[in-house]
């Protein structure tokens, strides 16, 4: 029983990271209807920004966090302007190829600047490990879950209650109609990318604190799995992104512990396929009916 509880806690820790990354994915897709596959690499850049600011330049951790958010927002907005905006009306395959190209560009740029050796992430917050009945709970796990839940609630309220949120929903529904209502589609999508990239900086912070070391390819696999989590929960759904991330982390950890680490990824993707067969829109995704 202790082993099972410890495994579930490890799954929650992993899943909360996936959920945090998936929130950025689903935010951009839900509004702009574009998959930003470079999102994981923006997380990697945010992590390096913290390392450079805190360890190299010797600034306080708070400054490192603020610099990371600023760098990620500027990078995300720049990517949207240069790479994605010209392709809004392009076929999905063209957007996918561009996104993969941006991802490889960021990885190789980081490789040239920081080298191939992994770098230690600084200690931003010191939290104790809680022990109860032989079960250990890392403080980072608890704070990641709390922050992820708070961001999910905050994003939901922002989308549903604020003027910008209403503009985002209008752009998501129909860009042409939104323009006729006086909404700037370009400005709205830029703000969406800025928010998604700020979330990437937050994800970089908690990923770095959980996994300690950062390398140029750090964001690629977590990014892919977080995208899978967003699809699992229902891409475009903010609560779905969190649910998908948590479930995916738990399933992956259970698979590693009780079946095999070699099969864990295959099991996770197998469960995803089963869910999509039963509910193609994901667990919390909504089916959209188009009138002809």
From TrEMBL:
- Which InterPro entries does UniProt cross-reference here? ABC_transp_permease (IPR001851), BCAA_transport_permease (IPR052157)
Q: Per its UniProt entry, which superkingdom is the organism in? A: Bacteria
Q: Which family does it belong to?
A: Belongs to the binding-protein-dependent transport system permease family. LivHM subfamily.
Keywords from UniProt, A to Z, are: Amino-acid transport, Cell inner membrane, Cell membrane, Membrane, Transmembrane, Transmembrane helix, Transport
A single Gene Ontology biological process assigned to it is:
D-alanine transmembrane transport
Give the stretches traversing the membrane.
12-31, 37-55, 62-83, 95-114, 135-159, 189-214, 226-251, 257-278
Name the species this protein comes from: Candidatus Avoscillospira stercoripullorum
**Can you say what this protein is called?**
Branched-chain amino acid ABC transporter permease
> What membrane topology is annotated for this entry?
Multi-pass membrane protein
Cellular component GO terms, alphabetically? plasma membrane
Question: What GO molecular function annotations does the UniProt record carry, in alphabetical order?
Answer: L-isoleucine transmembrane transporter activity; L-leucine transmembrane transporter activity; L-phenylalanine transmembrane transporter activity; L-valine transmembrane transporter activity
**Can you say where in the cell this protein is located?**
Cell membrane
| Entries under PANTHER family matching the protein | BRANCHED-CHAIN AMINO ACID TRANSPORT SYSTEM PERMEASE PROTEIN LIVH, HIGH-AFFINITY BRANCHED-CHAIN AMINO ACID TRANSPORT SYSTEM PERMEASE PROTEIN LIVH
């Amino acid at each position: 029983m202790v082993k099972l509880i410890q495994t579930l806690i490890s799954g929650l820790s992993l899943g909360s990271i996936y959920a945090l990354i998936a929130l950025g994915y689903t935010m951009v897709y839900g509004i702009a209807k574009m998959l930003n596959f470079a999102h994981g690499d923006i997380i990697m850049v945010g992590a390096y920004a913290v390392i450079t600011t805190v360890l190299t330049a010797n600034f306080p951790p708070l400054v490192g966090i603020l610099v990371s958010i600023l760098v990620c927002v500027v990078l995300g907005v720049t990517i949207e302007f240069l790479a994605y905006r010209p392709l809004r009306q392009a076929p999905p395959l063209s957007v996918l190829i561009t996104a993969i190209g941006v991802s490889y560009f960021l990885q190789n740029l980081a490789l040239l600047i920081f080298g191939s050796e992994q770098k230690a992430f600084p200690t931003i917050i010191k939290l104790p490990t809680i022990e109860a009945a032989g079960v250990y709970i890392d403080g980072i796990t608890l704070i990641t879950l709390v922050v992820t839940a708070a961001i999910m609630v905050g994003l939901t309220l922002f989308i549903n209650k604020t003027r910008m949120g209403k503009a985002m929903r209008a752009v998501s529904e129909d860009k042409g109609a939104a323009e006729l209502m006086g909404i700037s589609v370009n400005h709205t999508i830029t703000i969406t990318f800025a928010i998604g990239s700020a979330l990437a900086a937050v994800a970089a912070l908690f990923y770095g604190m959980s996994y300690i070391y950062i390398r140029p390819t750090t964001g690629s696999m977590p990014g892919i799995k977080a995208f899978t989590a967003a699809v699992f929960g229902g891409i475009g759904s903010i609560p779905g992104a969190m649910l998908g991330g948590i479930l995916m982390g738990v399933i992956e950890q259970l698979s590693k512990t009780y079946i095999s680490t070699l099969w864990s990824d295959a099991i996770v993707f197998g469960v995803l396929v089963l869910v999509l067969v039963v509910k193609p829109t994901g667990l919390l995704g909504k089916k959209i009916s188009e009138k002809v």
